[in-house]
UniProtKB/TrEMBL annotation:
Subcellular location: Nucleus
Organism: Brassica carinata (Ethiopian mustard)
Domain of life: Eukaryota
Start-end of Low complexity biased regions: 133-145
Identification of the protein by name: E2F/DP family winged-helix DNA-binding domain-containing protein
Family from the record: Belongs to the E2F/DP family.
Sequence ranges assigned to domain E2F/DP family winged-helix DNA-binding in this UniProt record: 26-91, 162-242
DNA sequence: AAGTCCCGCCATGCA
DNA sequence: TGCATGGCGGGACTT
């Protein structure tokens, strides 16, 4: 139990050198693989509670990594926090409901509840997040449309709760992007942009994208999304697969051995000497430099970098999973889609009261338009408003 | 103090 | 090379 985490036995953080071992591969330590192992370990009958320490030692990683996984799993309903160090296993069967809830929640406020000053509610924002089962609870506290943006605008209050930036919330918003729109393929860059409310300095974007990588990895290992490319731009992106039944997981061979051997795995392939040599000063220096640079080019009104680039996502039929607010349209049925979107427009436009949302909406329309014209080209459709 | 986990530096991997 | 990825752990925030 208290087998200490593998950690680095002894290592010289200095140097670079050394013997690098042959077999170190970051792939073997990826969050995605770790998640797969985690799932293989706990997604079985009889499991009802999961202890973080137990998981960490069984998987041979630090708790920090377990948090990464658990946080996103929880945001999809697979787990529920019970107490310190303790989670309740809900299983994959809880996913559909969770997705549905996210969809409804997202549809209701078009991805987020933005706060018009009259209904903010900064202070008491939620308390008990999800809890799918019983009641919907749609108080998706603030989130995505973080006020921020304008560097110097006066922020009413520091709506910057830690929770607002949590991996869990970000996961849910990322999922809403798929489930509440017609986008089927979205690149992490685009996702970050959308979730950030557009126009942001590189530093913030970079960090957001970094988080999205973590999320994408675990969602991928759950088969909720899959990596692909944008049809046109070729840029890597993720495709929403939705919940299609419970996938099967298998422990990676080494873990298996470790398990059967009753021994902590991981220790061996930990990249001891590879540790990055964080030369304090250079790191700090760099950080400062980046900060300044960030500030420098954060001119929020960069009219130049948004607008276009709408090729971030691809549209497609709606996810099979939870039936929801929007009808599942067929790709071929262009006219219907046109109709749907237009409906969507008139239905939602009125609610866009803040700039951020407006931009976001415009962004989507833009993307849709280009997609539309593209499709229309090879497959001219009769008339926009006549179904077939 | 212990538990959480945000953040972003910088190494890897792969065209 | 350059860009996409993502390991990793410092240290801030919560309990």
């Amino acid at each position: 139990m208290s087998d200490l985490p593998p950690e680095n036995p002894n290592l010289s953080l200095t140097s670079s050198s050394s013997s690098l071992h042959h077999s170190y591969s970051r792939k073997q330590k990826s969050l995605g693989l770790l998640c797969t192992n985690f799932l293989a370990l706990y997604n079985r009958h009889g499991i009802e509670t999961i202890g973080l320490d137990d998981a960490a030692s069984k998987l041979g990683v630090e708790r920090r990594r377990i948090y990464d996984i658990v946080n996103v799993l929880e945001s999809v309903g697979v787990l529920t926090k019970r107490a310190k160090n303790q989670y309740t296993w809900k299983g994959f069967s809880a996913i559909p409901a969770a997705l549905k809830e996210l969809q409804e929640e997202g549809a209701k406020d078009t991805f987020h509840r933005f706060y018009t000053n009259e209904n903010v509610k900064v202070s008491d924002d939620e308390d008990d997040e999800e809890e799918s089962s019983s009641q919907p609870l749609s108080s998706s506290q603030t989130d995505t449309s973080k006020p921020v943006s304008l560097p110097q605008s006066s922020d009413p209050s520091k709506i910057d709760n830690r929770r607002d930036k949590s991996l869990g919330l970000l996961t849910q918003n990322f999922i809403k992007l798929f489930v509440c729109s017609e986008a089927r393929i979205i690149s992490l860059d685009e996702a970050a942009k959308l979730l950030l409310g557009d126009a942001h300095n590189t530093s913030i974007m970079r960090t957001k994208v970094r988080r999205l990588y973590d999320i994408a990895n675990v969602l991928s290992s759950m088969n909720l999304i899959e990596k692909t490319h944008n049809l046109d731009s070729r840029k890597p992106a993720f495709k929403w697969l939705g919940y299609n039944g419970e996938p099967t997981f298998t422990l990676s061979s080494d873990l298996m051995q470790a398990e059967s051997k009753k021994r902590v795995f991981g220790t061996d392939l930990t990249n001891v000497s590879v540790k990055r040599s964080r030369t304090h000063e250079s790191a700090t220096e760099r950080r400062i430099k980046m900060k300044q640079q960030a500030i420098a080019d954060s001119s929020y009104n960069q009219s130049s970098d948004d607008a276009h680039e709408s090729r971030g996502y691809e549209f497609g039929p709606f996810a099979p999973a939870a039936g929801g607010t929007y009808p599942a349209a067929r790709l071929e049925d262009n006219s219907k889609r046109a109709f749907d979107v237009e409906n969507l427009v008139s239905e939602y436009r009125p609610s866009y009261q803040n700039q951020v949302l407006k931009d976001l909406f415009a962004h989507y329309m833009d993307a849709w338009k280009s997609w539309y014209s593209e499709v229309t080209q090879n497959n001219p459709l009769p008339d926009t408003s006549k179904r077939h």
